[in-house]
Amino acid sequence: MAAVKELIVDPVLTLTAIPLLGAGIGVLLWSRPRTLKAWALFLTAALVVVAVTAGTADGDAAIAPLSWLLILASFLAVFGQDPYMEAPSSIVLTLLFLGLSLGTLASGGALGIIFFSVMLGVIGLAMVWHGRTTSPMVWGAVALCGIGVLCLVASLAASGSVAVVLRLVAFATALPLFPLHGVFVGALSHLPGSLPAFLAVALPSLGVHGVVSISAAVPAGILPSLLLLALIGALYGSLKALVQCHLGQMVAYLAVTLLAIPWWHMAVTAGKMPQAAGYVSAVAVAMGGLLLAGHFVQARYGHLDLDKLRGLARPMPRFATLFGLLIMAAMGLPLFGVFSAFMAMMFSSSTTLPQSIVVILLVWFMASWLLVMLMQRILFGQPRPDLLYRDLSQTEVLSLVLVLCLLALGGIVPAGLFQLGDPAALSFLEVNR
Amino acid sequence: MIVANARYTELQRTELRVLVELASEITAHNWSMRTFIHHNILHGLEYLGFEEAIQRGQQLIGARGYLPNELYRTYFRQGRIRPDHVEAALQPLAQDTHVTIGGRRVTHLEVLRAHLVQGISAPAGETLEALFAGAPKRDLLNTPADRLRGVLTLPSVEARMQAAVNGDLAALGHHVTLAGWCDRVLGTQLWARINEVMIKWCAAFLDEGQATWAMPHREETFYRAWKRLAIQDRSCFLLGISDWRQKLADLPDQPEDAILDSLAALGLPNPLWQDYCSLHLAALFGWAGFIKWRAERPEPVSAQWAKAYPMDLVQYLAVRLWYEREFVYKACREDLGIEGTYGAICGYIHREPGAYFLRRERVAGNLPARYARQVDRLRDGWPTRGIEAWQALARRYAADSCDQDHRIALQSAAWRLVALAKALAIESATLLDSAPSDLKTLLDWLEAFPESQHGLRWLMALEAGYQETLLAQLMANARKLKGPKEEEAGVESNRLPVVRPQAQVVFCIDVRSEVYRRHLEEIGHYETLGFPGFFICFIRYRAFGSRHEVESFPVIMKCRNVAREIPRSYHGEILPRHRAGAQLVRTGHTLLHDLKAHVITPYVMVESLGWFYSLPFFGKTLFPVQDKKASAWLKRLFAPRVSTTLTVDKLSKSDAEEMMAAEQRAIIRRALRERLGLHGSQISPELVEASRLWALDEYGSAEPVLGRPSRLLDLSVEKEAAFIEDLREHYRIERGWAAARIDRITQMGLTLDEQAFTVETALRILGLTRIFARLVLLCAHTSTSDNNPFEAALDCGACGGNEGKPNARLFAAMANKAKVREQLAKHGIEIPQDTYFIAGQVDTATDEVELFDLEDVPPTHRKDVSHLLQDLKEMSRLTSQERCSRLPGVGTETEARKSLRNVSRHVRRRSADWSQVRPEWGLSRNAAFIIGSRRLTRGLNLEGRTFMNNYSYLDDPTARLLEILMTAPQVVGQWINMEHYFSTVDNDIYGSGSKVYHNVVGRISIMFGTQSDLRIGLAWQTVMNGEQPYHEPMRMLTIVEAPLEPISLLIQRHPVLQHFYDGRWVHLVAVDPEELTFHRYIPKQGWQKLNGPAAGGNWSFYPWHELASSGRTGVKGVE
Q: Which domain holds residue A183?
């Protein structure tokens, strides 16, 4: 009883409960998408205020920035959600996942593991429920969700290195690592509305948080395997992105490529991941922004093949400008967070950089090239006559501008802001003692 | 792979050349940028008629023939296209039927009009689903869709598949090449790859001096040079051509044989060959057009290159088809396991229609993601390449797609109905109460008039608006002329003012001249006339100091006469200084260029001289006008200006021989000094003459008689012979050279008869045979701009894209000659003694007029000239003012006012500014051609949109002159009009895109970036103002003031005129000069009298009847 009481008065857990409650109320507003959106906006905006206050006053300084980021991402995802295009499911799930994410971050220990397991489970169910079951990718993702959940549950029972490895496997589904990237790709390309934009931020954030928390305990013997998987994953992701014909999938695979770099970094720095959270957050926000932009396009033109979606620059100048800036941010041009976080991550390591950095740099260049290609394919060329072009509304513009501001802010925040340190790690390890 | 090794007969080769010639009709001649000529880009298809040619262009090049409908709709919203014209344009399509929707009667015409004006088309399927999902009031869409469920019959997916397969089979070889087919079905990029390699080879071969490192072996022809170099080119390996060296070595020597080999290897049946070659030529439309022009009728500079390095379309195709056959073979073999031949591909489509359809849809991006992935797997051979797997997938796709297709079709129909209801101001809800059959009727009406057919209707409505306004203005003028005050107004019954005008000024027929003429007539008592700017002086002109001749006459003509600009005889010391200075400037330029282009020197150049370039850089950027003046001053400092004249009179053969002999004697004197060391009195006239005659072989086989004079100098016989040989070889004193030189000299100038004929013809066409002013100014035109590869496009088209100055000077010189006037007098044209012809030129970018040869003006005319100069200056200012109001970039209103105060400075700055993409609008907005007297147009503001050629039927009883005007200037006008039309409607394909990306290649033309097709048409900035067209693309209206009968006879006589008028490339209106009544020519039918609004009230200018062939209305009212 005392524990329950403690939970209720814990401001962070209160923060967790609010979105879950909000999602519950959201179900009641299912048939009124505009009201639902307004409700969700109000809720997330209030959460931003509460989170900043609570995070500053009482919260865990290490996880507070990630929490803010998740709440901001959820706000932007709801804000950018088209009021009609799959809005109820997208908004309710966003609130639900926000609650679970905050729960994972805030609670730590066994409760954190449970929250994260539930989150993986709900992602799998959402994919099945959303009716895209004909795609083999969805079944693959659902299977990987199951593996993740099993690993997490098993890790509660296991101890020592076994528990760490089991958790590593589970976190590798969220911070995508080949061959466990299916959950991430499936969630980003098969879930409704603007939800993928939120999950693009939430999953890697939770993943990196989890990995950092156990990184000190990762057995040295598996580091070479991680290095190999990271390199394979980076190459695989870039090659898969090359052949994708839909925006969501292409962005998802590009994210797989770029998010393989922290894994590689962890492997070469013998389990330490200084600055990795900053880099992951920056990449995740950039990818989330691209997915949000993709949602705007999809709300107008449906699931168009990338080759059929061209020439948007002329009829949609606002979209073209913002999308171009997002691409520049994602490919790591200076002034944006991805660049500074990448540099911070690379220079923070005192170890000599191994030869594999050549592969990483090549992959980085390839990802940049693919991003530019993506921009070229979508923005340039002759506009199609059979599309009803409509440029971004003010709300949509504002949501992308906020994403860009967030990315620009990432370029100037102190390097240590996202440095996840020992407290969280201890909290995880404590479970096993 | 099958390669025919048979040798071909000469007959087969000839047949092939003819076939290529026919196939190349899609490619118009593409002139070098030195002499940019406006031309109808679909000139080769003129025999087809306008609409058919546009369709053919669309099939072959994928180009649009009309503006996007949305732009026409913008015109409509702006009032530029009027509702009554829209209705009239649609009338021939409308049936007399209606349906009732919600109690309202909706006619067929209303639906057509709503569709045209609002564009009631459903968006793409995926978009539609998104829109349905996102529509706030989706029930309004879903309910009509439900109501239509029973009445809409949709083809099954299988039927759709079969239709696609059949369509593609029919198109293969006719509209799609095998490489193109591979791209569409296998997702390859063969067509682009072929284009890339062809651009590489063509750019290297056709270079005219821009490349620092020229392509070797060019003298062996393109095909042979390519064959020789491609063997060493490892890019063939990278392109995946196996064993390329052997294959290239095995290629026949004759390009015709290579084409026949390739066509055989591709297995193309004979009937497809012509279309197939057309497709290949259309692929790089610009390059093919340039090669065609270069091979057939290049201007003098390109002619020299063409002679040295020959290339034609046969050679081009030989290379292109070889690449295609290799690429197609590889792609088909690797992806489909079949031969890369027409037969094998057709067999594959027949054998595996399901697999073919899925592959095609996959590449087109039409498959849902889950099917796309399965197709990818099957394509990659996983789990099997078997036909069964493909068939199973196709069946599954057909079953799955059926419902989705049906849903999308219903949504599409519902979307269109709701949009139609909105356009007709009907409550959408009433659709729910309407009978499904009525809704189906509405949909059928919309279906029968797809958006692709709207362009022509919009064009007609647009043309009607302009033509109605213009003809109304002319008719109003005609009514005034018929009125009682005619005599009081001082206007003679036909043409000329009774009072002798202050001066007569002849301008080019160019549309820009209309503005000058209007303003000059406002300023003083001037009579202005319009005449092609080359003043029928057919000359090749060589400017003083230039090494090349330019063809200063319309490109559709030929000529042998040469006019040279030579220094006036009174120049003494200045001339050598000028020559030395000019040489110095040239050498300096060459040196700098070589230093920049050399392998090593640029590194040193940048460090040492780089800073020097900052001066002109800042000067040109910040102070363009001052920089230009400073450059001119510097140039004059080195090479002082020399006054020149033209060679007008042709020398007789004896005079030419004597001139030649004098030149030879001077050369021999020099040779005697240089080779034998003789000087002074040692070089006797006898010695020189004897040497000359011996070198020219005048002695034949007789014993040389050089003897005595040279023997006196103790020269041995061998030395004498060696010296003579030296004269022949090094000093060109030999018979062949002399004959060629005499031929050239005799081409120079015109004989007296030619001069008199030229002047008389011009004056008669102008109708200038009776009252002459004291001054007659022949005002040519040019245009000055900086950093503008298309500068020639702004020059005089009648002068072959050059300035018209030499023609004006020549004409004035001829018309001032007493002997010419004597001959004219014999033919009834009495030019008064005090009439003096003077040459001038207006710069259409700065509006400044320059007069030439003023030193020849008699003292009696000094005041006239002075007065004229003042008025011309005022004319320039007024014109600049008018032009500035239309030019973009003049800025805000305040700025515009400021600019208008300093208009002259403003236009001069535009002209000198190297960053200015629009120094002037040029011929944009041209829309009509008026052949007739000025009385019809005097006092009207025609906004610089009309070509105006003076013509007086009274001076042309046999209609011979009218024949010239209708078959020459009008043709040039139509070329200009069509160049502008096509460049506007599809600037990406028919035009040359934005100037910002232009890149000069080989000094011949423009490419986009480093590799693209040659850009053929006009730049975006020439025809567009922002996103809106500045040039209103419409077909030219020709108005001829002449009796109907001779015009009809001329149409019957000349196929080109039949193509123009019956093919609807040009609209024709005749004005009866006696009655001053207007008659429109109805294609293939005859004349229809136009009753003006004052007379008839409800009248129509536009030949709506011509729609009868495509519409349903019969012809009415044709006289």
A: 11-432
